[in-house]
Amino acid sequence: MLQLRWYSACCFLLGLLAVPILTATASETFPFGSALFLDSRPLPGSKRIPMIEIQENGTAAFNLWCASLSGSASVAADTITITPTKALSVQCSPDRLTLDTDLLKALMQVTNWQRRGDVIDLIGATNLRFRMATN
After folding, report:
1. In the chain, how long is the greatest CA-to-CA distance?
2. CA separation for the pair 41, 47 (Å, rounded)
3. All structural domains of the chain with their residue ranges
4. What pLDDT does 19 receive?
5. pLDDT value at residue 16
6. Smallest Cα–Cα separation from 72: which of 115, 107, 24, 27?
7. d(CA 56, CA 75)
8. Is pTM, for the whole model, over 0.90?
9. Which residues of 99-119 are buried (b: 16+ CB within 10 A; e: fewer)?
10. Cα(92)–Cα(50) distance, rounded to whole angstroms?
11. The architecture CATH gives domain 30-132
């Protein structure tokens, strides 16, 4: 009888400990509507850091190193597909336009995403790490 009580108490305690872990895992949903900043420093002579924002309805805004454009994104479970719909601006310097083109290409090759707190990893041919704005 004492062993049964001990076993029951251990199971109850483990169940209580599992609740916060399961809650934390379930809350790691995609941060729709949040500004996601590329985990990078600004380029010399600039304060701009690439940022993306994806809405629940699939509309997306991309502010790259120089250019800004819109597009769409499809997010389901741990998969993501990003499709730009407007061309890059030609008002950028050739160096920044090359960086924008490379970043946009990497975004279009993303196939999965992962979230850990405020960090969102976009996984593809080139993995990209973004951080949610916390202000």
Report:
1. 79
2. 8
3. 30-132
4. 43
5. 45
6. 107
7. 8
8. no
9. bbeebbebbeebeebebeeee
10. 14
11. Beta Barrel (2.40)
